[in-house]
Specification:
The protein has eleven helices and eleven strands. It has 323 residues and is α/β, with parallel strands linked by helices. The protein folds into two domains: 183 residues, 3-Layer(aba) Sandwich (Rossmann fold); 114 residues, 3-Layer(aba) Sandwich (Rossmann fold). The structure holds 6-O-phosphono-beta-D-fructofuranose. 6-O-phosphono-beta-D-fructofuranose binds next to loops.
């Protein structure tokens, strides 16, 4: 293999740049040509592709977002779109790809590989930490720290006014961000899609807290929770406990931005190296991950389809720590 392409796709995540940098420099180190593909699969289809040098990735290890830009491509979901993308790669002699993204990115990569046989190695880049085959994904740690910083601030005002706050965090169908924020932020309760918590459970927990002289409470809600979003849940609780002073805060895209933590920079750099080395050594149609500090390769199919369960000890811990 002489020439590879790298792209970022789906929701951006802090640390994607550190991963791009690592891919580019590891590839150059091994004597490969590297092409940057902009705007994910859209740029692949449109030929928004440029040759990258070592200096192309200078001064980005600390930057949030992605210098390669990102997109969720509708066109790549069509046969015609993928054909155009393949032609753009062939024209430039690109023989292998490194895809940095989440489940949508790897779903596309899997189909592309099956249709055209082009070797692709994925690096898990998503704040959601929802991919089977890696203990952590790039951006998750930064997102949790950003959310925690916000929760700490909200706690100050909750405490001053004796209020109950429902704070919604991201994670799509996963409760990883919520559970970490719940433990780190001292929440009374965490609501995640992986476990079922009824509105009555919330009411009981808040009443118990009040009986123990708690004057303010934080409930962290994962956006994918089965009871609905934080506004909906808070509305139902308000009806039952009108005496409580309840507020809602949805943290939103703030969780996707900012400078990556040291953890994410190092994770991203390691995954970038392992992705390039894997591709050169014949890995294809797999996602690289780190499990128990060891590099592993998991098929795209498994990475996107198998559930990554939340450690039950973490759920128990929230309950115990909130007494
Ligand atoms: O996958 C990352 C993520 O931020 C999810 O947590 C969230 O559900 C989704 O992307 C939001 O997507 P968008 O930026 O397209 O609104």
């Amino acid at each position: 293999m002489k020439s590879i392409g790298v792209f970022t796709s789906g929701g951006d995540a802090p640390g994607m740049n550190a991963c791009v940098r690592s891919v580019v420099r590891n590839a150059l180190y091994l004597g490969l040509d590297v092409y940057g593909i902009k705007y994910g699969y859209n740029g692949m289809i449109e030929g928004d592709i440029y040759k990258m040098k070592s200096y192309s990735v200078s001064n980005i290890v600390q930057r949030g977002g992605t210098i390669l830009k990102s997109a969720r491509s509708k066109e790549f979901m069509t046969k015609e779109g993928r054909k155009l993308a393949y032609e753009q790669l062939s024209k430039r002699g690109i023989e292998g790809l490194i895809a940095i993204g989440g489940d949508g990115t790897f779903t596309g990569a899997n189909i592309f590989f099956e249709e055209y046989g082009i070797p692709i190695v994925g690096a898990p880049g998503t704040i959601d930490n929802d991919l089977f085959g890696s203990d952590y994904t790039i951006g998750f740690d930064t997102a949790v720290n950003t959310a925690l910083d916000a929760i700490d601030k909200i706690r100050d005002t909750a405490n001053s006014h004796d209020r109950v706050f429902f704070i919604e965090v991201m994670g799509r169908h996963s409760g990883y961000i919520a559970i970490q924020c719940g433990i780190g932020g001292g929440a009374e309760l965490v609501m995640v899609p992986e476990t079922s918590t009824t509105i009555q459970d919330v009411i009981t927990r808040l009443k118990e807290g009040r009986d123990r002289q708690k004057t303010s409470s934080i409930v962290v809600v994962a956006e994918g929770d089965e009871q609905g979003n934080a506004h909906e849940i808070a509305g139902k609780v308000m009806k039952e406990l009108p005496e409580l002073d309840i507020r809602v805060s949805t943290l939103g895209h703030i969780q996707r931005g900012g400078s990556p933590t040291s953890f994410d920079r190092i994770l991203a750099s390691r995954l970038g190296m392992a992705a390039v080395e894997g591709l050169v050594n014949g890995q294809k149609n797999v996602m690289v991950g780190i499990i128990n500090d060891k590099v592993t390769y998991t098929s795209f199919k498994l990475a996107i389809s198998k559930n990554k369960p939340i450690n039950e000890d973490l759920m128990r811990l929230v309950d115990i720590l909130s007494i």
